[in-house]
Amino acid sequence: MSVGIKSSFVNGQFVEVRGDEQILENRNPSNPSEVVDRFARADAALASLAVEAAHEAAVEWAVSNPQFRADVLDRIGTEILERREELARLLAREEGKVVREALGEVDRAGRSFKFYAQEALRTAGEKIDSVRPGVGIDITRQPVGVVGIISPWNFPIAIPAWKIAPALCFGNCVVFKPAELVPSSAWALADIISRSGLPAGVFNMLIGPGRSVGDTVMRHPLVQAISFTGSEQTGRQIAAIAVERMAKVQLEMGGKNPLIVLDDADIEVALDVAIQGSFFSTGQRCTASSRLIVTEGIYPEFVARLVERTRALKVGDALDPKTDIGPVVDAKQLEVDLDFIQSGLAEGATLVCGGEVIVREGGYFLEPALFLDVKPTMRIYREEIFGPVLSVLKVRNYEEAFAAAEDTQFGLSAGIVTTSLKHAEHFKRNSSAGMVMVNLPTAGVDYHVPFGGNRGSSYGPREQGTYAREFFTKVKTSYQLS
Questions:
Q1: 383 and 430 fall within a common domain
Q2: Residue 444 placed within a domain
Q3: Is the pLDDT of residue 1 over 50?
Q4: Residue 190 has pLDDT above 90, yes or no
């Protein structure tokens, strides 16, 4: 292998770097002059080899001993947790998430593997009588086969973990393509998995562009299922490809998540929930609350204090322990954020604070932007931005707030801050979002329960927890004359 250049992992080994591949440089968004790692880009041919290796390994892995699978997954989880500090710093350097948030993400990744280590031993099935005398029925679940996993850049280790762990747990082989913006965390995860005892071909990782590597994985006839997290536009394209060749598909896409603050809310709780949900992780979360809907009674005081709290947030290097908000992930995303800010101004919204680029070491630093006088027709209110940009809509009462929250093409997460049991229960029961938060940020979910939304946010079975079994297995009904 060429010195200093890392590569993809295929059929049980890291691929030898020949020297004629395109080289991907992974740079630190806090300081783009710093190269975190260099990678040899995979191509379509290598992607095909990875799929074929997974296919060859699939027959034996599908019937492997559940205790063996449990031990492998537990070893992976243990090493992730033992190296949490190192992995968190790596994540912060390549994605820009501040260290304390990166630590939480790494912890979640390790615990996901440990959770599915236990799930591997909970083999589910049913044995029932037929309506025909003397006939017995077994209902069992079997692995799907080869699963293509495509993950986004905003959670470089947690999202791959919560996809890869259940896939392996239920006896599937994996071909994993991480986002090219964040290959270092994916490579570190592959390195850990390479020492876990998995047979060759069961897990493969490809670092390369979506237009060649990702496309090959999606279209390959030996890939029986595709799990994707990313934009709604790309998700729709993947769904069409999967349906055309009758592959299973699981999509987690965008969100434009509302947070309602009612007049009876505890204002300190409301401020904490709004700041965390809207601006932490630089707003680069599909569960971020980028639409704040506030009733008129609490609006003046709440907005005044929200402006004060927003201005107090420290933007800076993700490795600095004093930093509240790290950089935007790259120059392209920074341009997107600035375009939305200009759009908000052009459509008549009032930018009361933030929205300015902070020039520091070339990093992609953006002051958190807070807009008032927002109308429901504005782009900043309707479209997912994926940056630290928050829109505030003033409404009269709960009924109007609920209607505004529902006015979206998405349906991932929704929140409400209130001390009213009546309104809290109504919101939980009637919200069309897949996940509902009461007096908690819309961003922040557990690893052992289902994750997903409705409408334009998600398609297919839920991720995480015991519900992951639905996607990563297929049901078989067997009859036998006794």
A1: yes
A2: no
A3: no
A4: yes
Q: Answer yes or no: do 126 and 149 share one domain.
A: yes
| Annotated catalytic residue 252 | yes
- Give residue-wise pLDDT tens across range 118-173: 999 998 899 999 999 999 999 999 999 999 999 999 999 999 999 999 999 999 99
Virtual torsion, Cα 113, 118, 121, 126, nearest 10 deg: -100
Look up 400 and say whether it is catalytic: no
**Domain hosting residue 355, numbered range:** 258-438
Q: Which amino acid is at 318?
A: A
| pLDDT tens readout for residues 341-360 | 999 999 999 999 999 999 87
Over the stretch 382-439, which tens digit does the pLDDT of each residue have?
999 999 999 999 999 999 999 999 999 999 999 999 999 999 999 999 999 999 999 9
Residues 196 and 209 in one domain: yes
Please tell me which residue in 52, 252, 384, 463 is annotated as part of the active site. 252
Q: Which of 169, 173, 286, 353 is catalytic?
A: 286
| Domain shared by 83 and 154, yes or no | yes
